[in-house]
Amino acid sequence: MRNSRELTALRERAVRLRREGKSRRQIKEALGFIGNYTLNQLLRDEPLPPERAGPGYAESRARAAEGVRRYWAAERPAREAARAAISAAAAAQVGELTDREIIVAGAIAYWCEGAKSKPYRIDEQVRFANSDPALIRFFLSFLDKSGVSRERLRYCISIHESADLEAATRYWAHVTGAGPHQFTRPAIKHHTPRTSRPDDNADYHGCLRVSVTKSSGLYREISGWAHGVMTTKRRPG
């Protein structure tokens, strides 16, 4: 952390460079690649140089911004198509999963996203939460392969109070195929979320927690499967 004398000297250099007409990038390089926040603090009371404050400069910036917008309007679809092609090719490599492979993948998924018992808090109940409907569906398939009846499942929606709870309930009921009696009281989040998600985003359905009743035995099996995957010896080649 810099002391007040160092900050004063840094500010004097930044102001001098600004008055010489240097750009922000040039000032940052001259000062040792400081961050944007630090540069803003150093120049917070310093006006733009005259050659950068006039209408001509603003028009030049606007033209440059429009050029960037046109570039990405053409480039973004091509990049999205390239990403989609790579993902599709990788998905095709997986092919159809055997029951054993579903058990292996499901156990690891649970060990990443599910509730886990701790030495200081023994809680061997299966609870899995996620907002991705594809992952929720896969976890339900994993439970099917594990011999768990769907009637043993309970669902809890965790969602911000500003969202549409009724729509979210309908959405998750469709994803899971569950009846109304399987949904427990929702967990409403009352704090203001720090997210770039628009308040009216129709794709936001909160997070779904899947709980299995009387599941201590299943929890121990999942623990064994997961640790078996993580610690087993690998076949060569």
Can you put this structure into words, describing what you see?
The protein is an alpha+beta fold and 237 residues long. The protein has nine helices and four strands, in the order H-H-H-H-H-H-E-H-E-H-E-E-H. It has a four-stranded mixed sheet with strand order 1-4-2-3, with helices on one face. The two termini are 51 Å apart. The mean pLDDT is 89.
Any descriptors?
single chain, 237 residues, alpha+beta, 9 helices, 55% helix, 9% strand
- Which structural class best describes the helix and strand composition? alpha+beta
What summary fits the major beta sheet?
4 strands, mixed
Q: How many H/I helices?
A: 9
SSE pattern, N- to C-terminal: HHHHHHEHEHEEH
The span between the termini is: 51 Å
The quaternary state of the protein chains shown equals single chain
**Main sheet strand line-up:** 1-4-2-3
Strand content: 5-15%
Give the SSE layout.
Blueprint: H1 4-19, H2 24-30, H3 36-42, H4 50-53, H5 55-94, H6 99-113, E1 127-130, H7 133-145, E2 153-160, H8 165-176, E3 187-189, E4 207-212, H9 216-231
Parallel strand pairs: 2-3
Antiparallel strand pairs: 1-4, 2-4
Helix pairs in contact: 6-7, 6-9
